[in-house]
Amino acid sequence: METSRNIFLVGLMGAGKTTIGRQLAQRLRKEFIDADQEIVRRTGVRIGTIFEIEGEEGFRAREAQVLESLTQLDDVVLATGGGVVLRRENRERLKARGFVIYLRAQPRDLYLRTRHDKGRPLLQTGDPLVRLEELYGVRDPLYCEVADLVVDTGRQSVSALVGQLLKRLPEACRLSA
Prior knowledge:
By secondary structure, the chain is of the alpha/beta class. It contains 8 helices and 5 strands; from the N terminus they run βαβααβαβααβαα.
């Protein structure tokens, strides 16, 4: 990995990428960006609407375009969407352009965190826990492939996780412009 000050967070929905990313960016004095929020900002519609109109494949194409531009920024903490690792080119961009942290959470914990959230199109199913288990089975190996650091989120507090990450980040990631 080249010396980069970018930090990219990957993991399933509900793993804490946005929440942890915001606090990590604040502590490191970096800009925080949420890729899903950037997609909403650029398109002017909710992600659920994109899924309804264009399907998952249409959303993934938009996600890849946004990731291409966001990973070229410098000195950012970027929370990616949960499915960003499904495309090889996305995994390559993440690996080449920053330090990748996989926030790993077990499907049961993710279910407890997301069960009331109606804004997650992939969980609008009869059994969201089964869906999370399926997603975990497919994506966990891809997250591990791309990750420079894997952190099990479990039931730790956000501040404890951020503290743990700060201790484990390479010096290059801690430097701010």
